[in-house]
Amino acid sequence: MAESEPEREVLTWDLFGTASRELAETVADSGFRPDLILSIARGGLFVAGALGYALDVKNLYVMNVEFYTGVDERLDLPVMLPPVPNAVDLAGAKVLVADDVADTGATLKLVRDFCADEVAEVRCAVVYEKPASTVACDYVWRRTDRWINFPWSTEPPVVTREGQVLDA
């Protein structure tokens, strides 16, 4: 690693297995029993799947949100991409929002606020939370201020596709 390059947090697949299990145990130990898990795609898909199995929750929803465009590069505001779940489908449920990282907190806030008026309760679970996050997550495996190398996004794509975002 070059001297000028900042140190990174590295999450391997094996460590993700440990992290997701420990995160699930934290949720379970709190007494919270979600009716469904709302995953923030794409990184949150892995977290939601692991939590779903560990917490015996089969009802998983997905919110597609675009925010990051590169390493520490992001849009001005996060944007929900279609298909957007119908908030009425979440009515009265205890919801666990799952994502890989709470960096600025903007994506989590968008998703949490989207469903907050419809659901009985909403809590957030992340593998990592950064100090700058505007959302204090209910369940966090580890806190860091470093850039994180996730096992699913460390390697470049096998193919590069431009213009994938579909207009609603």
From TrEMBL:
Q: Does the keyword Magnesium apply?
A: no
Q: Which SUPFAM superfamilies match?
A: PRTase-like (SSF53271)
Could you tell me one molecular function GO term of this UniProt entry?
glycosyltransferase activity
| Record-linked InterPro entries | PRTase-like (IPR029057), PRTase_dom (IPR000836)
Q: Provide an example Pfam family for this protein.
A: Pribosyltran
Q: Which stretches make up the Phosphoribosyltransferase domain?
A: 9-155
- What keywords tag this UniProt record? Glycosyltransferase, Transferase
Q: Which CDD domains match?
A: PRTases_typeI
Note the superkingdom of the native organism.
Bacteria
Q: Does the keyword Cell inner membrane apply?
A: no
Q: What is this protein called?
A: Phosphoribosyltransferase domain-containing protein
Q: Which organism is it from?
A: Prauserella isguenensis
